[in-house]
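Example complex used in Figure S2.
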Amino acid sequence: MEPDPSQSPTGGSSSLIFLGTGCSGALPDARCLLKPSTPPCAVCSMGISQPPEGNPNYRLNTSLLIDYCHDDGTHKYILIDIGKTFREQVLRWFVHHKVPYVDSIILTHEHADAVLGLDEVWVVQPRNDRNDVEQIPIFLTQFTMDSITRRFPYLVEQKPEDGDEDAQVAKIDWKIIEDDVDKPFVASGLQCVPLPVMHGEGYICLGFLFGRRARVAYLSDVSRFLPKTEHGKKEILVHNSLFR
Amino acid sequence: MEPDPSQSPTGGSSSLIFLGTGCSGALPDARCLLKPSTPPCAVCSMGISQPPEGNPNYRLNTSLLIDYCHDDGTHKYILIDIGKTFREQVLRWFVHHKVPYVDSIILTHEHADAVLGLDEVWVVQPRNDRNDVEQIPIFLTQFTMDSITRRFPYLVEQKPEDGDEDAQVAKIDWKIIEDDVDKPFVASGLQCVPLPVMHGEGYICLGFLFGRRARVAYLSDVSRFLPKTEHGKKEILVHNSLFR
Ligand SMILES: [Zn+2]
Ligand SMILES: [Zn+2]
Ligand SMILES: [Zn+2]
Ligand SMILES: [Zn+2]
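Predicted assembly (488 residues):
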């Protein structure tokens, strides 16, 4: 069943839902709360003392949900990264924005803050008209795939965890992409250009360039740009800014 | 620095803090909220409509924190299982009960709902008088250790994740235990007897028997008992009860 476009908060247009803009450890940092300094950390104190909704200091793992409105008015939901705090992000923002499921997932890299929520994929698995669970495509590099295979063998083999016969099994279509600006791919109808960037020396993380009317460059975990990534027309730049 | 016993909600006695009593997917089940049935699931609707504190239908991954008061009045905090929802459990219950850190961790088995929070261990790492981070012992079977080694190589090698040079590195002392009732071990001064039980046929999960004044048997994920586990004196039995 397609989501009803009139149900979408954006009606007939596309939008970006920032599910998280926090660092890998997320905010508040529990250490500031368990062993408070004198005076206590103002950021984390506020992070815990007000409800998470609208609290600028309750920030979960970096993740973007693209609500992509096709020309026929149907909406597709494309998720970039599914980190450690994904369950909270679904309860908070999917319910609020009436997002029924995720149509495809794109991974920037294989760190815990980008992939550890994969165990929850079955919760947001798309369903067809007959309410059958449909495969969800997950786009990732071979390097990320190798890491996922070690971490989540049961997701790659599409069987329950050993000894957990009653568990829900995610149905995933793993799609290998290349870290190459010249090799765009299409996720749920949206063309995405991989933007390889350095994330610590010797480690490549992907950003993505997408959007027809406005070109959006999403770069969530960058320590240094690569020459090829810097050029090209971008109207909206989403960029991490970890202050050191 | 030892925690001040007078700061503990239990003062000079030991106590059990149930950090979570939910199933592997935790409650509310996001599926009930994203695609509500008619009428909507009452359990999950309540799970999301009231604050998590004191909400009987907001239940995180099964986990127990033993606040163990030694004879000299010092408290040691022993955690059984560190699942997917550990960060939320720290923010909610550690802060509430003024638990400053965890002294040791015991794992029942290697499923995601028991171990996926290991990436957060550095947040609750104990510190000595000089505020230096101390190693945290983690007790687990060799089978669980093998699984953790594949999932969290950076925790076993005690280095940052590849490419993440700035990350905090957990300092862990991995301690192999046997799934044998005749091989008790001591975690932060507390003697624990492993109680092997079946969790799905062919898969062994550990429960634990501990406590001097009251003998507590903690069995969080059991499908079938083994003969050796059934016998013995227990005053308090904590047992999962998943209704099918
Ligand atoms: Zn802080
Ligand atoms: Zn990273
Ligand atoms: Zn429900
Ligand atoms: Zn299990």
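Chain A touches chain B through 50 residues (CB under 8 Å). The CA atoms of residues 173 and 211 of chain A lie 23 Å apart.
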